[in-house]
Input
Amino acid sequence: MTNNLLAIAHANKIRGKTPVLQDISLNVAAGERVALLGHNGAGKTTLMKCVLGLTNLSAGNISVAGVRPGSAKARAATVYLPEAVSFHKSLTGREQLTLFARLSGANGGKVGPLLERVGLADAADVRIGAWSKGMRQRLGMAQVMLGTPSVALLDEPTSGLDPVSRHELYTMIDELAASGTAVLIASHTLSEVEARTDRIAIMRKGALVADGTLNWLTANAGLQTRLRVRARPGDTEQVRQQLGGNRINGASIELSCPAEHKMQQLRQIASLGDLIVDFEMMQPGLEELYRHYSGEKLQ
Amino acid sequence: MINRVLAIAATELLIAVRNRWVLIATLMMLVFSLALTFAGSAPTGALGVDMLTVSVASMTTLSVYLLPLIALMMSFDAIAGETERGGLALLLSYPVSRAEILVGKFLAHVCALTFATLIGFGASGLIAAFSGGADNASLVALMRLILTSILLGSVFLALGYALSSLTGSASGAAGFGAALWLVLVVLFDLGLLGAVVMDNGGVFTQKVFPWIMVANPADAFRLWNISATENLALATGMTGAADGLPIWAAPVSLLIWPILALLTARASFARVEP
Output
């Protein structure tokens, strides 16, 4: 428990009459990388703003490195990368990063090497107004790396980044975690974060609907494997009667079964011999898994 | 704390220079004050005062309109603009307090205003003094004009931050800024004038009117500058207005206003949820 640098307990936030956060409990331990998934408007950014102390909770409790969010100590222990970060367009990258270094009390000598690290050394003295979205995002990541924080909140850190920068960004996130930072990454693509995080939390309409490892999520979802068979012309109805399932066009039949019954189903299909001319199996993918939890109907 | 305030101030000053606000403000002050100094040089002989006195009188009238306008133009974007860009949430995630951010911005903008006022009024004053004569009294009047102009500007800077916090959008803040300028600088005086005419020299005109007038920072600025110099009062034709007030009323009003306005800005800023 004491190891949880970020501890959110029964967090509730009501805006007007709409609940935007509903009884959220989530812990992130030192060195742990947790992905926070959800659609736009699921409450990810609101939750981060509550952790930053910018928005007050209606009920519940948040502790950042053992202290109240928004307090001077909590802010000194937290770094934040806002979604679609934007800086003052009249400043150069170096000036902007120097300001952040001075505000956080970090060593000003870090500014140059950090700009180089995120690949902005050449653009460092150009005004941010002339920068691309990806460059601004990389400057955002550079300010995250200024200190050695207890908690890092990254709101869709990869938006606007090319695959190479994306890879580099996750390397930096790994570095943060390795130095003992509790990292919370908001995203809306499971496939992107699954390999780079230790745990996945999914929000839907302000509530936390899942919190666990990818294996746990897969096991708990109970998603069906879909099998599609094509029958010999003219025998479709006979095959359907033997296997069950639905006819989806003139000659094909779709079946679905839980993952553990997959082989049994396969043997039954094989026993039909010449009646089957083609066979296709569709395993539930990451996106399907995500859609299952985030509550979107499957197409 | 001082380091953080200075870091914000240095950055804001850089932005003010880059955005050409410093240049625009200085040019506006210079052009208008030079124009008024030369246009207003005619009555020198008739009133028997030196040219610098007349110049200061004209610039006082100019300052009442121009400085609040420049100050509001500099400040309306200060909070709302940051919120709209999404930069405020990031800034506030750093260990810097809202008061430190506000004071940092204020320091930078006051510096920009001071520069513009010194150059604009200073240059015009010197030209007037060299071409039409000056004495100790008129030089003191020029100094007073510059200092009080900065005070007046700082009131409207802080009021601009308050509007910028309350309206939530830069365009909204600009609109309310224009309205505030119109009310405090133009309509307020017209309203008082109307009331005095209606009252026809009664109790209101004698007792209430001077106090209401001095409560407005723009009028306090005018009264302080004019009542302090007899010649100036003569040159502006505003001899009677300040008679019903003690000598300290206008300075106290103009010194309290910046503090009051900054506290209002701080309270408004506290309500901003980025």
